[in-house]
Design goal:
Elements (H helix, E strand, L loop, with lengths): L12 E5 L3 H12 L3 E5 L10 H4 L3 E2 L1 H7 L3 H20 L8 E2 L3 E5 L4 H14 L7 E4 H7 L9 E5 L3 E3 L1 H14 L3 E3 L4 E4 L2 E4 L5 E3 L2 E4 L13 E11 L9 E4 L5 E6 L3 E5 L13 H14 L7 E12 L6 E5 L2 E5 L5 H15 L11 H4 E2 L1
Parallel strand pairs: 1-2, 1-13, 2-9, 5-15, 13-20, 19-21
Antiparallel strand pairs: 3-8, 4-8, 5-7, 6-7, 10-11, 11-12, 14-17, 14-18, 15-16, 16-17, 19-20
Helix pairs in contact: 1-7, 1-9, 3-4, 3-5, 4-9
The structure holds flavin-adenine dinucleotide.
């Protein structure tokens, strides 16, 4: 197929199946480019069942590359360059989305300091020098996070990493989509076909110039290889502790991160279990997350647990994102645990397929595109 066949004419009609992270970003960009968009979601759009709603919102190319593969660093750095520009565009007439590039902090308790050394070595082996973090002693940790200095002797500071208020982003995107005239159809599960969506409740079809599939784990019946990876998180609130940036605690049995949010809330996560079980968080996971949180700073003991959630990260076999295309249908999936880290660069490439954006958007086409 000639790629030109995918290019959209002015004011084309586009259906987007799935109003999570990818679906909303694509809907917004397409509306800004002058197209007519209908956004379908199987659930509510204001209280979204998406992985995007459960996520912690870390944008951490270095930490994720060490845990997965160096490619995540390159893709993540490209996305990091886009987030501030996109958020600035989004903030027109809307409440700004909190986003901070304050770096992140990796710590380990004294008995686990070998894990920190291993982590540092992996980073030095896998990533370019410019990406590498700075080792910190107790004073260095306290200078960055005064509420942690007493509890840790050694740490690592990854200055380039960022975090975003993901729920505020989803809210603002929805407002913007509606303001730009997007048609939002919630509580409506669909299947996708080239140039049409099929409404599952009555099997009727609706035609469009283009359909984009962004259903995450919901794509599984129509995309072999999509799987869900269970993740469980807590959300707590306390006035007793303040953090400026995400903190990761290295531990021999589990990895914990804590991400500060508005109103003195913190997201603590996350388990990673190869299961598509969507049932509530287990006692064991809740205990492990809570006790790790308590060891980070005992002042968390009085924090109030305001939410416990589990959800599925949409992944493909190689845990990489993928964009599949044919005439009338583009499918995007596999963001796995890197949705916020990778979404801008993935969205940019999907839009480049239909003639929106510039040539720079093609830099990862060899990795992301698949016919
Ligand atoms: C616990 C947890 C923590 C995470 N933390 C981070 C993090 O810190 N940083 C990071 O970068 N990433 C993180 N992620 C990953 C990130 O949330 C996902 O990669 C991202 O949300 C995937 O985006 P998506 O749009 O593909 O899917 P989703 O956000 O899941 O959206 C899919 C949407 O499709 C809808 N849908 C499903 N089926 C249908 C259907 N048949 N018809 C219509 N609509 C349908 C769903 O209702 C949903 O709204 C985390 C994920 C989890 C679960």
């Amino acid at each position: 197929m000639n790629l030109d066949q995918l290019k959209l004419n002015n004011h084309s009609t586009v259906a987007i199946a799935g109003g999570g992270l990818l679906g909303r970003l694509l809907a917004w960009r397409l509306l800004e480019a002058g197209h007519r968009v209908t956004l379908y979601d199987a659930g509510s759009l204001s209280d979204s069942p998406s992985a995007a709603q459960t996520a912690a919102g870390m944008i951490s190319p270095i930490s994720e590359a060490i845990d997965t593969e160096p490619l995540m660093y390159d893709l993540g750095v490209a996305s990091l360059a886009l987030w501030p520009k996109w958020l600035q565009q989004l903030a027109v007439d809307a409440t700004p989305v909190p986003y901070a590039q304050n770096g992140s902090l990796i710590v380990a308790h004294h008995r686990d300091v070998g894990l920190l050394q291993q982590y540092t070595q992996d980073m030095q082996r896998q990533l370019p020098e410019a990406a590498q973090g700075r080792s910190l002693d107790k004073q260095g940790i306290a200078a960055l996070e005064s509420d942690l200095g007493e509890h840790f002797q050694q740490g690592l500071f990854l200055a380039k990493e960022a975090h975003i208020d993901n729920r505020q982003l989803l809210r603002v995107l929805l407002q913007r989509i509606k303001k730009l005239g997007g048609d939002c159809v919630e509580n409506t599960a669909v299947d996708v076909e080239p140039n049409c969506v099929r409404l599952l409740e009555n099997n009727s079809t609706v035609s469009f110039d283009l359909v984009m599939d962004c259903r995450g784990v919901g794509s599984k019946p129509q995309w072999q290889g999509v799987r869900g990876v269970r993740g469980e998180v807590l959300r707590v609130q306390t006035e007793e502790v303040s953090l400026q940036r995400p903190v990761r605690l290295l531990h021999p049995r589990y990895q914990l991160y804590i991400v500060p949010k508005a109103n003195q809330e913190f997201v603590i996560g996350a388990t990673q279990i190869e299961s598509e079980d969507r049932s509530p968080i287990s006692v064991q996971s809740a205990l492990e997350l809570n006790s790790a949180l308590y060891t980070l700073n005992p002042a968390f003991a009085e924090a109030r647990i305001i939410e416990m959630q589990s959800n599925l990260r949409p992944a493909l076999n190689d845990n990489r994102p993928q964009i599949q295309y044919k005439e009338g249908l583009i499918k995007v999936n596999g963001l796995y645990r890197h949705g916020y880290l990778l979404a801008p660069v993935v969205v940019q490439h999907a839009l480049a397929l239909i003639g929106i954006g510039n040539a720079a958007a093609q830099s990862f086409s060899g990795v992301l595109f698949c016919k």
